[in-house]
Specification:
The protein has 619 residues and is of the alpha+beta class. The chain has 27 helices and 8 strands. An 8-stranded antiparallel β-sheet has the order 3-2-4-1-6-7-5-8. This is SLC13 family permease.
Amino acid sequence: MEIVGSVFHIWAVFALIAVAIFAFANEQIELEMSSIGVIAALLLLFHFYPLLDQAGNDLLTPTQILAGIADPALITVLSLLVVGQGIVRTGALEQPIRRLVALRRHHPILAIAVVLATVLVISAFMNNTPVVVIFIPLMTALAERLHRSTSTLMIPLSYASILGGMTTLIGSSTNLLVMAAAAQAGQPEIGFFDFTVPGAVLALFGLVYALIVIPRILPDRTSMKGEVIDISGKQFIVQMEVAPDSPLVGEEAVAGQFPSLRNITIRFIQRGEHVLLPPFDGITLKPADAVVFAGTRKSITEAFSDNPQILQGFLEPDSPTAEASAELGGAAQDQTLAEAVVAPASRMIGRALYQISFHYRTRCVVIGIQRRSRMIRTSRMTDIRLEAGDVLLILGNRSDIMRLRNNPDVLLLEWSARELPATALAWRARFIFGAVVVCAATGLLPIVVAAVCGAVAMVASGCLNIYQASRAIDRRILLLIGAALGLGAAMQATGGASYLAHGVLSVMVGAGPPVILSAFFLLVAIFTNILSNNATAVLFTPIGISIARELGVDPMIFVFAVIFAANCSFATPMGYQTNLLVMGPGHYKFADFFKAGAPLVLLLWIIFSLFAPFYYGLM
């Protein structure tokens, strides 16, 4: 490619890229502000110093600089985020995954391998972030079963999702952005499975490393275990009445536990005037039974997710049955669980639940009570006299829950508000997700069309509402990608990419294409751990294409190298979002990611350097 821009334009763009890299990597500067600042600087630079050809035509207009914000690849990424949110919101993957994790009862080590392999496969077709969110509690359960620290399993979970993302076009937003940057440089559109074979080879070696090596080199922070158990083990006293159409009707206890109420301790069952005490072997639940039990928030949420109909059993004596049943049972997909503390001067202090008309005043239902430092002993939850500091587990519509912020009687713990999975709609979400994948993979529809239609279908089918869909769209991704694509367009128009390609080739004069490809892969892999993987991918794609043209080889080989190298974001926690997600549950430090991830980056670099030249015919 001929360098069409002046030296001033080229170095001005390079200086702006350097400033952008510093700003993106600086945690004290908001990513949104950095991205908007980069876009504004590009617009100002090429407004006051336009890039003109010999005929006086402007080669880089504001429309071209801002085109990245409306790029089909970016629209695809945002649409797939909405589709993924629909999968998470409906719990569409939770039931199959729980059956998979049941392997830990007999083959716990095999279960870890199967779970990580499953994460890898799912991540090939779904955004990595919600996949890791779903699997974090499952990996925690495996760690407890194996009597191991979660610190030995959380980083492998993140890495497995990243490895899976480098095998298909929609596996990672990085892949789609490379496709956009390549198309911007005049390259053909990348197919769904065009780089699956080399990607699968890299993913396989990476998975073996994550299974065998990482647990041996990561610290076993067992000192944190007690703290985690204490936090997650807080129990609420809950009273539930078995409704006539509840799935609990006719359910018989097995080994003292009812299958639909697993991981829950049944205190007693009140049947009319009789109180049934444990053990409950041979006892079958009947309509109107009042079941009083103790359970953690996690176990209660799982019970609701598996059987949304049992929500009808949480009716206060002062609530009209028909109205409450319609609110709780008929719109389960809109229900939110939250915790609230009884305020010191609350009018509820000293009164029982049936006396405070909580549902009438707030349209929310108290389904559990937790009292600090001691266990509550009472015949029924509704008879408990509330005290200041009691924690109430509250169920209601999200808007009603948020209105509790203005209620002087309770202090809402907003961080605790979590929407219940709408499992009744899970089959719709699975169908929509499957249709998007099939249409994109077979070429029946362009990927952007399939993704946008999938996002619309998630909202139209009720799997998501507009508010939930809008929350799935990350504005940081939107602005960062827009800024990166703008910088990429400037590099391409000014000839900066070709200038850098000449520089790289002059440094490696005499080296063959395999050596240059290997060095290029390593350079991109280093930058993706310092900078954002998306920004790295967009910035290096035009450089790789220019190097390939100078060498006289197929530019798509270097484009695929950018995809694989930009996904090698293993060595730092900020390298990829999933690394940040597992940092807390695994109690990791920055050095832990470098210790586990740097060798993996080098391993994949060696595998790529050996495999790619033979696969692409460069030898």
